[in-house]
Structure formats: structure tokens, C-alpha cells
Amino acid sequence: MTWEGWLAIVAAVLSVVALGAVLAVGRAVGRAQHAVGGTSSPAGAGAEHVEPHRPLVAFVANPSKPGVPELRPAVRRACAEQYLPEPLWLETTPEDPGIGQTKDALGRGADLVVALGGDGTVRAVAEALVGTGVPMGLIPVGTGNLLARNLDIPLGDPVSALQVALEGTDRTIDVGWLRVLKFESDVDDDVAEASDDLPADTDVPRDHIFLVIAGVGFDAAMVADADDQLKAKVGWIAYFVAGIKHLHGRRLRTVVRLDDKAAEPARVRSLLIGNCGRLPGGITLLPDAELDDGWLDIAAIDTRGGVAGWAQLFGEVVLQGAGVRTQLPNKIGRIDHARAREVHLQIAGGEWVQVDGDVLGQVTELSARVDPGALKVRVPAS
């Protein structure tokens, strides 16, 4: 036999041996997959495929705000572009401004709840999300848009705000709670017991959430008197128009207690209790306030001397917003700052109180406290 013949025989034997090795390996792989409950996969497919979690987004929308119903197609399109499930669209009602809708969304497994409306909608959604760990997104379409301003959420551009809600990062912030202990109009116990028309929980205090600023006095009266039609036309400027009527209002007689310190009397035009301090018009009333520092910032605002006092006060606000604070004695318009985790306030004769622009009524006694790190919010990616 020639050497070419021997070479052909060797090649054939090697081919048979290689084929046998391949078949043996295949059988071993099959047995191993069967042992872990799997099935054979194409080369490179790896272990059993696990479908990645796709977050469910819920939108709690206030349909009374201009343009909100028309945003629904854009919301669905934006979620589809990111391969997210069909979003939940839950509309608020006059009877339920968003708390019930948010709880419904959580019950249906929402991973993100977006407040689509004004400050009232944001407060309601936040109240239901506190302590859950589920983040809140914001698409601001209201008059003040207070929290959105302090989080640098785009204003006047719902589509950009939507992108922040879907693609931003999560930030943990504090929230404030205000409890009205006594309304000016509270009836005495004898009248309450004699009336069958009063709700059973009339005398039960309730906590009201605020994310930016709660206030008693001039600021709350200004909010209470703001004309809704004017707000729809000119936005936050309507509040300043309403404020003109209260420039010559009375100074409040109050007794203030901060944390466990002794209570002190104070004469003020407004007492502000803030979680953060940026307001419309570029105004910063509480320059030291931080959303995540675990403190409430308090500002006692007072003026005397009529318009001159208000003019000096406005100058104080502008300067402190620029980082400059004056310490001149005997000022007729001034802001005094303090910090606390709990505040107790008594007001002689009663006065209006507001939380993030929502008026609660006229009160004679209230308390406020901070709830550190209680809420997650979606903010622009840094």
C-alpha cells in the first residue's frame, strides 16, 4: 500500500473519533440541562431567558387644567418609545384630588406615579406616596408649580417634564405636616353635641402635607383672595394683585414655640414654615432652606410704616435672595429666620393659613413638623 493510502486510512479514523467525541459532549450537555430543569438551547443562548422587568408608570392627571387631556397621546407614545407597558391614566375629581387615584395605582403595581396638574395635585399624590419608596414624577401645569421650581423641573414645557419623569434620577426629600388644632369658627362643645348635622370627625385634627411652604397671615390671605379667572390669564401674578388689598392689614399677635424651647410672643405680618424657599417671580424667601436637611425653616415677616415698610421688606427679600443680609437696627420691614423640627403657633383672633397655596381656613392654633426623607421624587439627571 502506498503512503497516500495509509494517510487516507488515518484521516478516516481521526474523523470517526472526532465525531464520537462531539456526540458524547452533546449527550453530556443534554443530561446536565435536564438535571436543572432546562432545555437544550442554541449555541451562545446561555441559560433560560428571563424577561427584564419593565416599570409600570401611572399618571394622576387633573383634567380641569388646560391641555391636560390632550397630553395623554404624548404620554402613551413616550412610554412606548422606551418599551414600557401601557401607562395607567387616572384622573382626579373634585371629591378626590389624587390621593385615592395614587393608592389605586400602587395597588396595581405602579413603579412610578407622575402628578400631572398643579400644586394641589402634587400635594395629593405626595401624601399617598409618603413612606412607600415609590418615586413621584412631576409634570407641572398649575399656577405656582412650587415644588417643580425648587427641583428644577421644566416649567411651561410638559413634554420636557415628561422626559424628566421617565428618564431622570430619584432624590429623597423631606416633607412637612401641618395640623390645625383649632379653627376660628370652631363651635363649643355644647353646640356640637346638640347638632345632628355636624360630621362625626369635626373636632378631630388632621395632618396636611406641604412640600414647599406653609404660611399664616398676609401670604395666606393673599392666596385666599386671588381671583381664579385672573390666575388663568396671568398666572402667579394674580397673587400679587390680591396682595395689594392686604398691605394695610393688621399685624398678628402670636405665640410661637420652636421644638422644646420656651414659647415667645411675636408681632408679625406673616409666619412662614418652609421645607424649601424658592417662589414664583425669582423670589427666595427662605435662602437657607434645603429639601433634604431634616429641618423646617421659619421666617417671621413684619412691617410697619405702611408702604415704606413693605418697600424695605421687598428690598430685604431681594438682597437675601442674592446672598446679602442686612443687620440694621430698627428696620420697619424685616425678616427674622429660625430653624426647628416642630413648631407650635397660637394666633389671637384667628388668621388664614395655607399649605403650598391651598387655603385651609382661618385658625387660632396649629402645629407643624418635618418628616425627614419621607418622599422620593424624580429630578433631572445631573
Automatic annotation (TrEMBL):
SUPFAM superfamilies linked to this entry: NAD kinase/diacylglycerol kinase-like
GO biological process: methylglyoxal biosynthetic process
GO CC term (a single one): cytosol
Keywords per UniProt: Kinase, Transferase
GO molecular function terms noted in the UniProt entry: kinase activity; methylglyoxal synthase activity
Pfam families: DAGK_cat, YegS_C
Top-level division of the source organism's lineage: Bacteria
Keyword Kinase: yes
Ranges where the DAGKc domain occurs: 52-182
InterPro entries reported in the protein's UniProt record: ATP-NAD_kinase_N, Diacylglycerol_kinase_cat_dom, Methylgl_synth, NAD/diacylglycerol_kinase_sf, YegS/DAGK_C
Record protein name field: Diacylglycerol kinase
